[in-house]
Amino acid sequence: MDYNHFFEKIKDIFPKIETNTSSDLSESEFKTRYGYPEVPVLLKSRFNELHQSIDFKALDEKFDSREWKFDSTTEQSGAEMFLKDYLQKETNEYYLKTNIRDIDFHIDYPDFFKCWYRAFPTEKEKKELVWLYYGNKNTFTNIHTDIWKFNSWLLLLKGKKLWFIYPKAYNSIIRENKEKYGIDHLETLMNGNVKPFIAVQNPGEMMYVPSDTFHFVINLEASMAYTGNFMNETNYENVKQYFAKSDNSNNKKFINSIIATGMTHLKIRNL
């Protein structure tokens, strides 16, 4: 499918994801308008400085320096190749996901999205929840919610992405048959009652997706993204509920310790 052409068909049919053009949106204002009420938003200007601070020449050299393990967009096994070969093939069968900890390249973390899990001091090894994604045109991430009911942020570094984000009011309907509302049923979604909100994201723009929100994304161009998941006072109850259903008591204790520490620091900051 030509997804750029498809976007032209749907841009006046599907509702739009809210956008915010402020370059000086404060963290507290963000939480009031989007964080606590769990509203997805495309921040068009707030992270321009972060985007401009990245040494793209050095980053490109890092990616070009060796072969990478690419994940498959299907159920097939992955493949190892150089990035230049991947881009030249223009294949949409693979995408690259690399842990920011493992790439040996520094990009400032957007502290705007403070993460209690990330900040929690512990000798226990924690999962790295910040990545770089590289995908050719027409690669996609199909319908899903994010890990552990964490919120997510995604700063687009290169390319162009088309986002589909469902209101949380549809969660129970979607969970009955999740694939029905994903990328394989785009034509059906045009005529259905359950419609996602959409937005096109360009370089320098940041997308925020609240906890437990179904969404999927298509690369309209070859794209590189800097992305992460986080928990804090805006979504800790969702995270707590998720781990309350876990059979692992150690995980429950660990996440409850993180939440308790985060709440304590929050109270101290507000004194």
UniProtKB/TrEMBL annotation:
PROSITE patterns: JMJC (PS51184). Residues 98-247 form the JmjC domain. It holds the Pfam family JmjC. InterPro entries: JmjC_dom, JMJD6_ArgDemeth/LysHydrox. SUPFAM superfamilies: Clavaminate synthase-like. This is JmjC domain-containing protein.
